[in-house]
Amino acid sequence: MDLRDSNVSRLATEEFDVLIIGGGINGAVSAAALAARGARVALIDARDFAGFTSQQSSNLVWGGIKYMEGYEFGLVAGLCKSRNELLDSFPSTVKEIRFLMTLNRQFRFHPWVILASTWLYWLLGRGRTRTPRLLSVEQIKQSEPLIDTVASSAGIEYSDAFLHDNDARFVFNFVRSAMDKGCVAANYVESSGAVRNAGGDWKTEVMDKESGRRFTIRSKILINAAGAYVDQHNKLSGIETENHHLLSKGIHLIVPQLSDKHRVLAFFASDERLFFAIPMANRTCIGTTDTRVDDPLTAVTDEDRDFVLSNINARLDLPTPLRREDVIAERCGVRPLAAPKSRGGSMDVHHLSRKHVIEVTAPRKHISIFGGKLTDCLNVGEEICAQAARLGLDLQAVGKWYGEPGADARAAFFNRAHRLGLDEIVASDTHEALSERLWRRYAANADAMLDAIEQDASLAEPLIAQAGIRRCEIEYLAQHEMIVKLEDYLRRRSKIELLLPRETLRQSPGLLQACKILFGDKAQQRIDEYFD
Question: Whole-structure pTM over 0.90, yes or no?
Answer without folding.
Answer: yes
